[in-house]
Amino acid sequence: MFRSGALRLPWRSGAPNREELFSVERLEEHARSLAAAQPVTSKPARGHPLAARLADNGTTLLSAYRVTAGALKRHRVITPAADWLVDNYYLVERQIREIRSALPPGYYRQLPKLADGPFAGYPRVFGLAWAFVAHTDSHFDGDMLCRFVRAYQEVQPLTIGELWAVAITLRIVLVENLRRVAEQIVQSGIARQEADDIADRLLGMSGRTAEPVSVVLADRQGTTLPDAFAVELVHRLRDQDPRITPALTWLDQHLAAQGSTTDAVVRDEHQRQGAGIVTVRNIITSMRRISDADWTGLFERMSLVDDMLAAGDLFRDMDFPTRNLYRSAIEELAPGAGRRT
After folding, report:
1. Can you spell out the DSSP letters for 71-126?
2. 96 pLDDT exceeds 90?
């Protein structure tokens, strides 16, 4: 039985799926502990489909692309991460189309589902892919993936269907992660634009008369300032006419009330932008690499069934279609023997 509210848990946070970056040895260790902590349902379950979230991700990414491309057309300065999104959106759009066509509902329903935890009701392979993406910062490497999956199977063997689903599930998780970074890009862009508008009013830009600090900043009293807003305002107002000093003093006091400082906010925002650039670049590059990878070869390297069949002298000498006939026969026979393969 899935816990109440489990459907919403994976999407409750909008933070990028980015955790401590692991070496391959640490990644293998994590795979074993993850397998021990991820029981599956005892009987086949319909589970929670990912199609609705994928569609929502597509809509959100299209919106982020339009907002960012629109900012460029208006000659607004955008971040390098936003540049990556705009330049490569065609690839993202193609990935989403391919995922939709390659994941029929019937196939999805056959995948073992997790019985507990934040991904309860979702395919076990989804939890596996989520962890791999988190601890590689969305960087795909075929050898590292094989070692991760093999380590997981030292504790919990995966079915043949799950192994074939690894590629498309990784792409689903990468799209999800890009959506989260894209939302941050858009929110930060809006905050910077608001700061620019305030700076223009304070400085009397575009031929208008400069307005008093007390008037311009009145509606910001008691509000929480986004880091991107504060950083842009500092950037625009620092080293300006001394009459602007009260605005910087107000900003320092406002941030102090939030438990921060100007220097800390600038540092944190620069770190966030730097991390965003790396993650977006990794996602786009990984999408290309996953599309170009030899998944038949990767599958056979990860497959425990192949290990058993290869114990004979002839299996590795067969061509791929023949080897696949052996695997398909085992899949058909396994349920009658009370096994999952």
Report:
1. HHHTT----HHHHHHHHTHHHHHHHHHHHHHH--HHHHHHS-BB-SSTTTTSBHHH
2. yes
